[in-house]
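Changelog entry: the Kinesin motor domain-containing protein record was regenerated in this release. Current contents:
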Amino acid sequence: MTEDMCKVFVRVRPLNSMEVDGNMSKVVHVVDDQIVLLEQKVRLDVTHRTHNVSDTKDLEFRFDKVFGEDSTQAEVFENTTKAVLEGFMRGFTCTVFAYGASGAGKTHTMMGSAEDPGVMYRTMREMFTLMDQVKEEKEFNIPSHTLR
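Regenerated structure tokens:
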């Protein structure tokens, strides 16, 4: 398997309103376009005093690409899934999936909204545009599956 056969991307979401209202702090920090830092220090508020429960070192993780809190749906699609369609158009079986904890932003990234569609809509739109460009030369059969 070549290194181009599987890519791993991370999209870091901003704190949501409940987290902001709860005075929570970020534990995942974007270092650059390939590295995120996971804070390991656990803070405990006991009777209005903050105690560090753990002195464990922060963890650094490297990915093919990291998208920060201000990344757009278009940016995520253009830099991840759009390239997969090149292989698809050459007859390869392709898979794109989102994985993560509840509330991490998987549905937002994959589905988006009517005003700002996510990866799935943008992929289908681009796929049919590409197929339309070669419809006189090729025939396509597109089975698809979605899991939630």
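The chain has five helices and seven strands.
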